[in-house]
Amino acid sequence: MSVSRLVRARPDQIFEILADPRMHWRIDGSGTVRADVRGPGRLHLGARFSMAMRWGLPYRTSNTVIEFEEGRRIAWWHFAHNAWRYVLEPRDGGTLVTEQFDWTRSRSSLLLRRTDLLRRNEAAMRATLDRIAGLLEV
User: What are the distances in angstroms from CA 53 to CA 25, 32, 58, 103?
Assistant: First the structure.
């Protein structure tokens, strides 16, 4: 699953937000991520971080950065191997930001198929890109 949006900002500005797990609650379009984050202040390949979440009930998720290309690409996944990836491509007037929810190696694909989670994820991803733009565009 993939959604894209042109954001009127440089790729390095957007990447700084994505690489700082303390900012994730500010850009999360699903409304599930909370501000309580544990881990490094800036992500890197192999970095592990956890965050408080709430979807009905509070819980905590642990994530590992599985892709990292400075200023261009970052991805992490949690225990179920659902991956969230951001790809940044410079364009005239800004950066094309693509968020991908990659569940090709998911341990929970049956759950994803039998519920409305995929539809909800797409809407949340669009909202996330809007929030990123809202933080950076003047």
Answer: 9, 5, 6, 20
